[in-house]
Each structure stands twice: as C-alpha cells, then as structure tokens.
Amino acid sequence: MTNCIFCKIVSKEIPSEVLYENDHVIAVLDINPIHLGHALILPKKHCNDFLDLPEETYHSILQAAKIVTLALVQSLKLEGYNLFSNNGTIAGQSVFHFHLHITPRYRNDNIRFVLNLKEYSGGDMKKYGTMIRKFIKPPAL
Ligand SMILES: [Zn+2]
For a disulfide at 60, which of 24, 35, 53, 133, Cβ 3.0-4.6 Å? Predict the structure, then answer.
C-alpha cells in the first residue's frame, strides 16, 4: 500500500525505532506513546485489521508480542502492561494497517479504559451464545 504510514515504516521509507524484526513482523516504538516504551507490533504485509491478517503471521505476531513484552517488563521494571488492538473507526483505529499495542503501566498512572459494564438478563447470555456459535467456523484441516 503506497499511502500507508506503517507500510512505509516496514519498508524503512520512514525511520522508526525498531525493537525487533523477523520475516513477518516488525516491532517499533509508538511515536505518540501512552507511556515511554509503548511499542507496536506490525505485520510486514499490509492488512487493514485483525480479520484481514494473513494466517502465516498469527504465530509471529504473538511471538513478537511476547519477546517485546518481556523486554519491556525487564528493562523498565514493569509490574503491569496492556496489550490491545483497535479495529474499525468506531473502535478507535486510526491507521488501517493492523497493529498490536503493548504499553507499560504504572501504579496510579491514571490511565483508564472507561467501561460501562452491562449484565445479561433473562436468557440473553444463552441467546447470544447460540447466535454467535452459528457463525463459529473452525479452520479446515
Ligand atoms: Zn500498510
């Protein structure tokens, strides 16, 4: 993708602070971090979002996430961290090239996901389970 900022980071057309790289993924520091050390794991092949991820990248993304998270925990002496991915404009995605965020967390850092938790009532949990299971498609062997 010619106009994708993350593809330009992958191709090194735009400089970035690379933490880790292999054949399928690259891990860089986010230029607008929640906390210093906030990292992004990017597949090298352009894909818009999680559902668009090529299957051959699944393992590399999680493997890189673990390698980078461990490095963050050890280098920054973290007690906690968040891993998350925004998918779709309404979910807060701003760059449409899949990326997984890993951000350090600190005691009393006042960063909160503002959640308004709901409860299932009546048979709603069973209803939702049934509705979703109809669309579960295990991978073909
Ligand atoms: Zn891209």
Answer: 24
